[in-house]
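User: Teach me something about this protein's shape.
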Amino acid sequence: MVTATVLLARRVAHLATMDRVGEFVPEFGVEAVRYSIYGEMFLASSNDLVYQFEYSHDPDLVIIDLIKAHVWDASTVATLDAVVTKYERRGKTLRIIGLNEKKC
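Assistant: First, the predicted structure itself:
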């Protein structure tokens, strides 16, 4: 059972993908970068997420778009918290959208 669980976790670990796009946000009147995350996010797929952001190179406004993602566990929430902390330490504003929407 343990072996099957580990093999399943390794197989689906790459089900989450992320795109980075720069954009102008009219409501704030500033340039921003939007990270859109797609797929299933849980321990195996969100572990490396914290390393995929360009903290130093991103503008002052960063948007993490989770509308097309599904957060399965607390480890993903902890990973997102680590991302927030890294941006806050650099004095940047971070907006997370789509986190509380129900996914089917």
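Now, about its shape. The CA atoms of residues 50 and 83 lie 6 Å apart. DSSP finds three helices and four strands in the chain. If you'd like, I can walk through any region in more detail.
User: That's plenty for now, thanks!
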